[in-house]
């Protein structure tokens, strides 16, 4: 691979990490506005009711969609990379057939378990009818997931970014007027209408590329069984992850009370949600690219290492700024009585440095179709996370939970790397070790600065560390990508 091809490869990763990170950032900003307006219109009780319905519907959707929205990407990506148009069209039909089956199955399950959900989710009234009315939303989510998988595998990344942007504003335009006029009675219609809008917008793009056809469905269900097997492993991993979070929150509730659970949730959100902007491109762009080359060991190594490099370089300056700005951000985003989450969130920031390195490696098991290995590694991580949080909370309180998050990600990184090294012959590049080492050192310095007693020292030293982290990332990205050159050409062209 020549220097130009290398630059183009790095540029692609950086470009779409930036695009989807920007979209995720827009989602967060609009989400904050939307949540503020909904809080004013519905109040705490109404927001709690909406949260319960959304949580239940998302859980049913994830448990009944067989993971098609994820596993279909791997299989179709391989076919797309072969360039066989006949096979591509046929497998698109396979995905749509399975999406239709999971849509019907999910809708029926939602209706059937409505009484159980009503009894176990609510302590007042009979909400069975609400879950029956929400059943179509589960079906729509399944259809949307299948069509989104098709767009991901086809690398229609700009289309996917456009859909996300449209949905941010559509959800805002649907929910606010309905909540204004109908209050809590509008919660179920809003959930259904948002799901319907998402489905319509998604299929309007995907059906334009590959029109929907009913003919020739014989045998397609059997052809999709390998896809379903991988998807089921992904679903089980998601259920186990949700179960681990439930165990953690239940333990914190019993040991420390609801206030501790609320503080833990806030700290977790500050650390994980906002750093997630950089990870948002992984499933959309990185996973299809990795799946397409999964039979070529050298190509797999190059793809993983470049994704880690870009993730570390993009995320590290943000993390150092987040770590040092938390004392200011916390009262702005929450309230002054959330002050105990600052030490917890600051130490938990290191988990995101480690996730930037472990996540690209962990995707290789899914790209290879090794569903059992993926499931086992996820089980080990979930058990480790629960054990560490319980142990460290008993020793160091809320600060211990942040320390447990970072330590669990460190062990996870070691595990996934050793497994990928032995099973798939993955070798970490020297540049990954160098960039990660530099940025982790600067992150450690930023954390050391948080203990500065003097406010002047804190902010002066903090600004120096953040500037250094940003300068390192910009310098390396400028050398490795052609985006800087393209930007300078545009600027010079405008001045001519």
From TrEMBL:
Keywords: Cell membrane, Membrane, Transmembrane, Transmembrane helix. This is Oligosaccharide flippase family protein. It is found in: Cell membrane. The chain crosses the membrane at residues 12-32, 38-60, 97-117, 129-151, 163-181, 187-207, 228-248, 260-279, 312-332, 374-393, 399-420, 432-450, 456-477. PANTHER family: O-ANTIGEN TRANSPORTER-RELATED, PST FAMILY PREDICTED COLANIC ACID TRANSPORTER. Its main location: membrane. It is a multi-pass membrane protein. The keyword Cell membrane applies. It comes from the Bacteria. InterPro entries: Poly_Biosynth_Transport (IPR050833), Polysacc_synth (IPR002797). The keyword Membrane applies.
């Amino acid at each position: 691979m020549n220097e130009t091809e290398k630059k183009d490869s790095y540029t692609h990763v950086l470009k779409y990490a930036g695009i989807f990170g920007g979209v995720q950032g827009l989602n967060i900003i609009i989400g904050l506005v939307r949540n503020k307006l909904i809080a004013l219109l519905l109040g705490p009780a109404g927001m709690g009711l909406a949260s319960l319905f959304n949580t239940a519907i998302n859980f049913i959707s994830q448990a009944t969609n067989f993971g098609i929205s994820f596993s279909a990407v791997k299989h179709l990506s391989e076919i797309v990379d072969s360039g066989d148009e006949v096979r591509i069209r046929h497998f698109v039909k396979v995905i749509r057939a399975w999406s239709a089956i999971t849509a019907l199955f999910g809708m029926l399950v939602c209706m059937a378990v409505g009484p159980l959900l009503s009894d176990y989710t609510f302590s007042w009234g009979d909400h069975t009818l609400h879950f029956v009315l929400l059943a179509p939303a589960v079906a729509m989510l399944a259809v949307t997931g299948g069509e989104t998988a098709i767009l991901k595998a086809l690398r229609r990344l700009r289309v996917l970014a456009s859909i996300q942007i449209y949905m941010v504003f559509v959800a805002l335009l649907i929910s606010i007027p309905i909540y204004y006029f109908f209050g809590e009675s509008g919660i179920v219609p809003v959930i259904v209408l948002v799901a319907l809008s998402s489905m319509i917008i998604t299929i309007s793009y995907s059906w334009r590329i590959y029109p929907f056809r009913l003919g020739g469905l014989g045998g397609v269900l059997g052809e999709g069984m390998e896809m379903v097997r991988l998807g089921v492993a992904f679903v089980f991993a998601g259920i186990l992850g949700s179960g681990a979070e439930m165990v953690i929150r239940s333990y914190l509730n019993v040991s420390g009370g609801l206030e501790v659970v609320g503080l833990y949730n806030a700290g977790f959100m500050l650390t994980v949600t906002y750093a997630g902007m950089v990870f948002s491109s992984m499933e959309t762009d990185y996973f299809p690219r990795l799946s397409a080359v999964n039979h070529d060991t050298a190509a797999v190594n190059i793809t993983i290492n470049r994704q880690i490099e870009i993730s570390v370089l993009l995320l590290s300056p943000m993390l150092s700024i987040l770590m040092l700005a938390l004392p200011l951000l916390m009262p702005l985003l929450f309230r002054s009585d959330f002050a105990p989450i600052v030490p917890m969130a600051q130490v938990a920031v290191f988990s995101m440095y480690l996730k930037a390195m472990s996540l690209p490696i962990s995707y290789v098991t899914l790209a290879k179709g090794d569903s059992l290995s993926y499931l086992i590694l996820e089980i080990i991580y979930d058990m480790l996370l629960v054990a560490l949080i319980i142990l460290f909370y008993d020793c160091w309180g809320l600060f211990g939970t942040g320390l447990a998050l970072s330590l669990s990600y460190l062990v996870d990184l070691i595990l996934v790397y050793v497994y990928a090294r032995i099973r798939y012959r993955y070798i970490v590049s020297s540049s990954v070790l160098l960039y990660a080492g530099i940025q982790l050192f600067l992150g450690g310095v930023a954390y050391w600065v948080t203990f500065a007693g003097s406010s002047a020292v804190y902010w002066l030293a903090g600004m120096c560390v953040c500037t250094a982290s940003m300068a390192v990332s910009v310098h390396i990205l400028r050398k490795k990508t052609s985006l800087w050159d393209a930007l300078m050409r545009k600027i010079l062209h405008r001045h001519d």
